[in-house]
Amino acid sequence: MPKKKTKKMVSKRVKKTGTGKLVFARPGSGHLLSSKSRKRKRNLRRGQVVDKTDFKRLNEMI
Predict the structure, then answer these.
(1) What are the residues facing 47 on neighbouring strands?
(2) What is the pLDDT of residues 2-59, one digit of tens each?
(3) Residue 48 placed within a domain
(4) In the chain, how many domains are there?
(5) Residue 14 lies inside a defined structural domain of this protein
(6) How far is CA 5 from the centre of its chain?
(7) What is the DSSP string of 8-20?
C-alpha cells in the first residue's frame, strides 16, 4: 500500500512537539490589535495544543 500524502495546508499550520502533541498558532493576532488588551495579545502569542477530538484526524493529515 502506498504512503499517505501530507496535507500541506495542515503541515503549514500545525507543528508536532517532541512529545507528539500537535500545536497551532491561535487566530486573532494578525490585525486590529489596538483594541485588544495587552493580556489578550500576550496570550495569543503562545501556541495552543490541539484538542483530543481533532488529534487523530490532524495527525493522519501530517
Answers:
(1) 25
(2) 988 999 999 999 999 999 999 999 999 999 999 999 999 999 999 999 999 999 999 9
(3) yes
(4) 1
(5) yes
(6) 19
(7) HHHHHHEEE-TTS
Query: Residue 3 is inside which H or E element, if any?
Result: none
- Residue 31, C-alpha cell as written in the block: 490585525
Q: Find residue 48's DSSP bridge partners.
A: 24
- In which element (H, E) is residue 41 found? helix 38-45
Domain presence at residue 1: no
- DSSP 3-state of 47: strand
Q: Is 47 exposed, middle or buried (0-12, 13-18, 19+ CB in 10 A)?
A: middle
Q: Is the dihedral angle over the CA atoms 22, 50, 59, 6 positive or is it negative?
A: negative
In a domain, residue 19? The reply is yes
- Per-residue pLDDT of 34-45, as tens digits, reads 999 999 999 999
pTM for this entry: 0.78
